[in-house]
Write a structure and sequence with these properties.
Distance between the termini: 32 Å
Strand order of the largest sheet: 5-6-2-1-9
Number of helices: 0
CATH superfamily: Expansin, cellulose-binding-like domain
Largest sheet: 5 strands, antiparallel
CATH class: Mainly Beta
Number of strands: 9
Helix content: under 10%
Number of domains: 1
Length: 112
Amino acid sequence: VNHVRVPCKYPGVNIAFRVDQGANPFYFKTLIEFEDDDGDLKAVALKEAGSGAWTPMAQDWGALWRLNNGRRLRAPFSLRLTSDSGRKLVVNNVIPANWKAGATYRSLVNYP
């Protein structure tokens, strides 16, 4: 069986972030859904509240990305997505300060 990778297209649907059930204030993991671009995500970075720095997240498998740096994380979180072709998309404060494990947070953006 041959498999061909094709670009995902979700016209009119914005990117959503489903927080993993195991996430907690020291360990953040999210499933990125409805990403509409030229392939898989190559990189995801997280920016905490009050920080100017982007921290790279590790890819678990598929569209699951995690951050576990051994200290309490300060929400709200902004996420920066980098596609296979290197296009970046910043989603500001998409994960609110009172986020909950298992919840899904919809952004207002997607790749054009």
